Amino acid sequence: MREVNLRSVDLNLLVVLNALIQERHVSKAAERLQMSQPAVSRALQRLRQTLDDPVLVRVGTGYDLSARAETLRPQLASLLRNVEQIMQADQFDPKQYRGVLRLTGLDLELILLMPEVLQRLRQKAPQLRVEIVPQIPEHFELLEQGDVHFSITGLNPQTGQDQFRRFEIARTGQICLMDRDNPLAAKEMSLEAYAKASHGLVSITGKGPGFMDDELQKMGLKRQVMLRLANFLSVANFCQGTDLVFTLPEIIGRYLVKDSRLVLRPLPGEFRLPQVVLYLYWHERFHHDPMCRWVRGELNQALTRVSQV
Q: Using alpha carbons only, what angle is made at residue 194 by residues 173 and 204, rounded to the nearest 5 degrees?
């Protein structure tokens, strides 16, 4: 069997070949394809040269298929159906989909935002499996490597920003969390009192000072960080019964004070801090994926509603 160089073959000829096989007549094939008869005749000549076969043979007053064209008929029909499926956008049916959705984020952020989302996904895509992947300090690498589809975070990627897409899911201010018996809870907190307090710090990356240290440094002040934690979920346990003050996003603080002896107090008025913005990130590799496109729509609606509660 001789090897065919596909780069030298005009694959549009397959469409013409299919019409000729179906119609067994050049003029009728031209009408079917909305082409001129001379153009189809030229295409037939090229097909005959490429296939080394007449394709159509004269019988009586008309034409019929050559033996090879008869053999090619089912193969060609199947091939063209496959090509159409390749070129068409995938159709996503959430009720039938059986794949896996992988997300990452901080434990408390996921607890705050994801339960209602999961209920929504379970109702609309009952066969979809959801995996929550532990967030690592360099969690944008999980997106870049394709290990997760989405990440919830308030951080920005340090490199490769053009690889990532995102939308905002929550916006919140900063607040102080402390034990109700902490002396600072009894009155309005001054900037000096805040700086002198014993502080707890949640460090997602585990590196460097916190953003409040940078803000204090701008004012010529410094605080003492007596406890550094890796996540927000354990803050309440470590803060209760101590003199520690944690500065954290208000949306998280309001969750942590529930059913506890902790209280929330505003930061000193000297601070003019921008709001904390939480985003849903995904990598460009999954931007056109049918499952991810559908999930993004569901997450956008559900997370926006949750963040407004």
A: 50
- Each residue's pLDDT expressed in tens, for the chain with a length of 309 residues: 455 566 666 778 899 999 999 899 999 999 988 899 999 999 999 999 888 899 999 888 888 999 999 999 888 888 887 777 666 666 789 999 989 999 998 877 788 888 888 898 999 999 999 998 887 777 788 999 899 999 998 888 888 888 999 999 888 899 999 999 999 999 999 999 999 999 999 987 667 688 899 999 999 999 999 999 988 889 999 999 999 999 999 989 999 999 889 999 999 999 988 888 889 999 999 998 899 999 999 888 887 655 554
Alpha-helical (H) ranges within the chain are: 12-23, 26-33, 37-51, 67-87, 107-124, 140-144, 191-196, 211-218, 235-239, 250-256, 290-307
Q: Are 141 and 205 in contact (CB under 8 A)?
A: no
Q: Which CA distances in Å does 241 have to 37, 93, 238, 244?
A: 91, 52, 8, 9
End-to-end CA distance of the chain: 69
DSSP letter at 227 equals E
Dihedral angle, C-alpha 264, 269, 274, 278, nearest 10 °: 0
Bridge-based pairing of strands 262-265 and 164-172 is unpaired
Closest CA to 255 of 154, 135, 151, 110: 110
Q: Which domains does the chain have, with CATH numbers?
A: 6-87 (1.10.10.10), 100-171+277-307 (3.40.190.10), 174-274 (3.40.190.10)
Six token digits for residue 180 = 């109700």
Q: Give me the DSSP letters along 78-93.
A: HHHHHHHHHHSPPP--
State the pTM of this model.
0.67
Q: What SS3 state is found at 286?
A: helix
